[in-house]
């Protein structure tokens, strides 16, 4: 006897529809203080092919390392949150400001980073990772990066493009060689 797949076993056909109201690739308005950056890349499967139906969700601090409160969005134009869908090739783009270092417990400081959640059809639990900026001095002392094996840290680093220092490339590799580091939450 074969039983059909139930709602708890699949994301279903309405995945994109349910996520779309929060799509926003511009996280910072023109009045937002901070260094403007654009991060672009691809979500890639184990064969290196682009995933056309993934969603990238980003949470970040402002240029001073503070997570914003809802009321300050009107004043600063900074949302600190965005969600983008990949296109048919698995490409995505986020435009924001470079976050400041975020204070943590016991006086440790995290290097500038964006928290990233990856959603996609067939993935019952989202994946959690981070984007750090290659060459950032604070990366050496970041307590989260310290627990990631040195040979895997590059998967978390957005690389500046030579032509434009405010444009960074970063890919999500779901499995295989150079699989992105994902964190348990």
Note down, in words, how this protein is organized.
This protein has 185 residues and is mainly β. It has one domain: Aromatic compound dioxygenase (Protocatechuate 3,4-Dioxygenase, subunit A). The protein contains 3 helices and 11 strands, in the order αββαββββββαβββ. The protein has helices at 15-19, 72-76, 143-147; strands at 36-44, 54-60, 81-85, 91-97, 102-103, 109-110, 113-120, 127-133, 157-160, 167-169, 172-173. The strands form 2 sheets. Strands 1, 2, 3, 4, 7, 8, 9, 10 and 11 form a 9-stranded mixed sheet that branches. The longest helix has 5 residues, at 15-19. It is globular and about 55 Å long. The protein starts with 14 loop residues before the first helix and ends in a 12-residue tail after the last strand. The model has no long low-confidence stretch (mean pLDDT 88).
CATH architecture, by name, is Sandwich
The major pleated sheet works out as: 9 strands, mixed
Would you identify the regions where 5 or more consecutive residues have pLDDT less than 50? none
DSSP strand (E) fraction?
25-35%
Properties at a glance:
single chain, 185 residues, mainly beta, Protocatechuate 3,4-Dioxygenase, subunit A, two-stranded antiparallel sheet, 3 helices, 11 strands, 30% strand, globular
């Amino acid at each position: 006897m074969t039983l059909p797949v139930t709602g708890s076993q699949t994301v279903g056909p309405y995945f994109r529809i349910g996520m779309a109201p929060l799509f926003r690739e511009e996280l910072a308005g023109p009045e937002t203080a901070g260094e403007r950056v654009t991060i672009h890349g691809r979500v890639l499967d184990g064969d290196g092919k682009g995933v056309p139906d993934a969603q990238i969700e980003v949470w970040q601090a402002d240029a001073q390392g503070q997570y914003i409160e809802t009321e300050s969005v009107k004043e600063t134009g900074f949302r600190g949150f965005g969600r983008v869908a990949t296109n048919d090739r698995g490409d995505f783009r986020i435009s924001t400001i470079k976050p400041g270092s975020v204070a943590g417990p016991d006086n440790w400081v995290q290097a500038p980073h964006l928290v990233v959640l990856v959603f996609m059809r067939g993935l019952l639990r989202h994946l959690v990772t981070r984007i750090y900026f290659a060459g950032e001095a604070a990366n050496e002392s970041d307590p989260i990066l310290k627990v990631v094996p040195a040979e895997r840290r590059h998967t978390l680093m957005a690389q500046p493009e030579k032509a434009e220092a405010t444009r960074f490339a970063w890919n999500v590799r779901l499995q295989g060689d150079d699989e992105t580091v994902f964190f348990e939450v």
